[in-house]
Amino acid sequence: MLGLLLILLFAPFNVLTLPFSFSFTGDQLVLQPVDGPAIESEVSTGPSSAVQLIYQFRDHVALENLAIRSNGHLVLTASNQAIVYEMNPAARNAPPTSLPSIPGVTGLTGIVETAPDVFAVAAGNWSSGGFHGEPGSFSIWSVDFNQRRPTVKLIAAIPEADALNGLTTLESSPEIILAADSSAGVIRRLNVITGEHNVALQNPFFAPTGKIPLGINGIRTFDGHLYFLNSAQGVYGRVPLNDDGSAAGEVQVVARTNLPAIYDDFDLDWEGNAWIATHANMLNEITIQGKQRNITADSRNTEMTEPTSAQFGRGSKQAEKTVYMVSAGNTAVGGQ
Prior knowledge:
- By secondary structure, this protein is mainly beta.
- About 0% of the residues lie in helices and about 50% in strands.
- It has 1 helix and 30 strands.
- The strands form 8 sheets. Strands 5-26-25-24-23 form a 5-stranded mixed beta sheet, with no helix packed on it.
- A hairpin with a 5-residue loop joins strand 3 and strand 4.
- The protein is globular, with a radius of gyration of 18 Å.
- The termini are close together.
């Protein structure tokens, strides 16, 4: 059984920034700029980018998410382990370092940097398939790399949560994190200093469906907006934010996936374009205008079985043009 860690190299590009609403004409999605004429959502397949395998976990590790330290090292979570991993992607085939485990939970999901070299991690109990969280088991922990040996400490238990997943911070207040509660269909707000937490955002576009119990998943803040993915509804959208993380306007749907492809988690580049880990084995890009393309081009790419998250590198110009991805695997290739 293998866990996979992959990197993808790409070329930069330029885009324009426009807000969109949406409607359907028959089976076709039409995106409507708020102050302009309607244009059709476009899904294209670009030339295949090079995918390079960095490391294969020898044990059963269902990699779920990742963050990048300022030194370029990767910090990894797994939905079926309560262990945070760290590894240097430049040291090929070097095994990752296991940090102290988080007690009382079976898996870890979202991770985000809240202060220099300090990361918040969502922890809780998940089913073996990773689709069902155990309500009442979730909490947020800090992982601090500023000590000689990294330390792990509880920030707050959040017993009201059903299934904490993606995490992000407010742009103006990195001590305030937003946490996607995928089963409850809400976004929770937590002050990592005081431990105070409550519901910041709730919207029908965040909710799961009967077929897929995970609704809102990956979330990011950029240019005064919260960008989000809904795995169940196949929606990529955004909502303007007030300084406290509450909604300053209505949700705008930027794009939709073509099911059965399922959006999972993502990162934004410097221009606000989303790079999305998409099941079963794709990396998709969605521009702010809502145009989509499959970066990996070949949906049969077996090296990226069930990718769960993507992040741009840090520390050098080359790293900033590198997308790191983690993959959870499936029964055909073993748990990852």
